[in-house]
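Reopening closed ticket. The problem is back. First fold of the pair:
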Amino acid sequence: MSWGFLRDLLSGVNKYSTGIGRIWIAVVFIFRLLVYIVAAENIWKYEHDEFECNIKQPGCENVCFDHFFPVSHIRLWALQLIMVSTPSLLVVFHVAYRENREKHHNQKLYKSPGEIDGGLLYTYLISLILKTGFEIVFLVLFYKLYNGFKVPRLVKCDIRPCPNTVDCYISKPTEKMIFLYFLVTTSCLCIVLNLSELSYLIFKYSIKCYLKRVIKNRQ
């Protein structure tokens, strides 16, 4: 599939983001999207063909592969990338709504349609919460589906139609585990960046509201 739409989305959101938000976009684009396209996709490309069991019982190998890999790592990673990026559309849509509203009324209604304040602030905060939530959900999902963040060299399978306990071997387990650790590390980094940006915005606008209230009381 083409990842151009995701690149365009991240580029479009970049101009509405804070400094921390721009770092998050750089991490997603450089350390996740590009790594996925250039390297990780090729490593898991033939994972089913390279999954070998020490028996040729018809159907046994397919059943064992499906049991130990219910969802492909690489497809789950792709879904994660899409899900954590799409909440940014909320910000883009809100800015577009502001711009259309100004055109409709034919007057300046905002200092800048892309400035994070008022309703756009709440939209931005919601997008951060959704991105953080998706990151955590997918990390838990990875952990539950594969019994931890590791890729074993050997898996033992005794599911029918296998006649007995069968040894199955995963190709390039070390290489796959390195990329899995990389995935987990970048996900955790993105969670930290999202929470930092969320805290920064809440603190910034809390101080701003407090100062406005103090000035108003003095007047």
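Second fold of the pair, where the issue appears:
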Amino acid sequence: APDSDGGSEELVLTPAQLIRSLEQAWLNEKFAPELLESKPEIIECVVEQLDHMEANLKRAKKGDLKVSVHHMEIERIRYVLSSYLRCRLVKIEKFFPHVLEKEKSRAEGEPSILSPEEFAFAKEYMANTETYLKNAALKHMPPNLQKVSLLKSVPKPNLDSFVFLRVLERQENILVEPETDEQREYTIDLEEGSQHLIRYKTIAPLVASGAVQLI
């Protein structure tokens, strides 16, 4: 809905488009080596859609074949949604100091990679980790060794890993390999519908913009 000044509009999606958006976010999150931008609007709308579908099922006639079909669709959507959220939590637990550092250094107006609930979880997880390390090991160490940098101790996401992708929007002159002493600069065009195996950090901005889909 437009805001009070009429300066912005909410994107309206059909139920089918909404589910496709969820599936796209799920696949991107599943195959990307780093935690991607949070999609709270999609999650909220999907939950509302599921509630609406379940309400419709309660009003349907028992024994109607459509009831079984719609019930299976609800379970499928719930699986995708829970898998998406679970994948994000696994990444937060795995990369929590880097996730929090990225969130802290985020420029004003830049999309957050964490929902408010995920941000609270990440902070609590970091605090619990620090407390455990202190009580289990650090307090028994010499004073000069009782501090540890989690940013240095916890591995970063491997942005140099390779990912499979499908091109949704044609892209030109994508820099695949920068120029070095051993090789010249290498760029390619990505044709719509084509599939590629490419280093993730090369196409990370295209994943964020929705121009490509990880598969």
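Update: turned out to be a display glitch only; the data is intact. The radius of gyration is 22 Å. Strands lie at 162-167, 171-177, 186-190, 195-199, 212-214. Please close again.
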